Amino acid sequence: MSVVFSGTNQGSFTSDGxxxxxxxxxxxxxxxxxxITQMAANQTTAVGVQYYWQRxxxxxxxxxxxxxxxxxxxxxxxxxxxxxxxxxNNTLNVPGPSIAITAISAATPPVVSTGNTAGLVTGSIxxxxxxxxxxxxxxxxxxxxxxxxxxxxxxxxxxxxVAMNSVAxxxxxxxxxxxxxxxxxxxxxxxxxxxxxxxxxxxxxxxxNHNFTVGQVIRFVVPTVNARSYGMAQLDGVQATIVAINxxxxxxxxxxxxxxxxTTSFGTFLWPLSADPVHTPAQVVPxxxxxAQAIASGTNILGDSExxxxxxxxxxxxxxxxxxxxxxxxxxxxxxxxxxxxx
Length: 343
Description:
There is one protein chain. The chain has helices at about 35-40, 160-165, 290-295; strands at about 5-15, 20, 30-35, 45-55, 60-65, 75-80, 85-90, 100, 105, 110-115, 125-130, 140-150, 150-155, 170-175, 185, 190-195, 200-205, 215-220, 225, 230, 240-245, 255-260, 285-290, 305-310, 310-315, 330-335. The chain is globular and about 70 Å long. The protein is mostly beta strands. The protein folds into three domains: about 5-90 and about 310-335; about 100-175, Elongation Factor Tu (Ef-tu), domain 3 (Beta Barrel); about 185-310, Ubiquitin-activating enzyme E1, FCCH domain (Elongation Factor Tu (Ef-tu), domain 3, Beta Barrel). The longest helix has 7 residues, at about 290-295. About 5% of the residues lie in helices and about 40% in strands.
């Protein structure tokens, strides 16, 4: 049996306590991870120091070796089905399982009530489905803000007066979206638009963390939904240059782009009502670069260049007793591609 590559890759990193993704082109068949910091320290209780995975293990599984006292040996091991390793391919942007929600509050930002927040961290992306009384939120993606474990999470950049017309949502579902679109720069959905302090400009708040840069040119898509528009239908099809990023909007949200368009005479930006039909959401679409603006702002004049950010690799769950380690742990790893390849 032949394979493209047979051998090992290796490396190290200092953990920040969060999940670490290793981009390994060889598509690994096995990996060993060593937490050098915890191996070198005396332990009074069992602490994870070495972790192993091989192809055929389910996603999230690992064999973990623990150091339980001052002896220089890993003297306890366990096979665990969660908190370990998962293969990653961000070109396969498959949503996670549907998880029930019981309510979406009319707070700013909205609080989503659920009995299951497993896998969510601040900055995760979720997609909401089938929410009663707030159907306009359905099918769209949002960045997660504050999380209360197995109780709730917030939709970080939404003003409920704008997006939900101050009407709380009830039952529905959410699914975790594991990866951002792998072509840069991405399209982003609009949460709100307000005039900037400089009235010839406007601040556009986006529903998901953006990575736009000053000088990029975007085009607005702001559709009319039957008799009800998003409140600024005049912007539909308008092309604009980004002149600033991450300025605070009226709610203090800073996931924003500031554009060179005066919207003071356009009325108030509002989402459709819950009863309105399925529609294209309001969004900004990247279309090019204003080179003069980019140079004047000291940003990359090729910031609009389309880049394929696709990769394969393996994810190491972060935290104590997990292969990604706790904050400041020094982690070494060796990963291999074998002839047999496993299951």
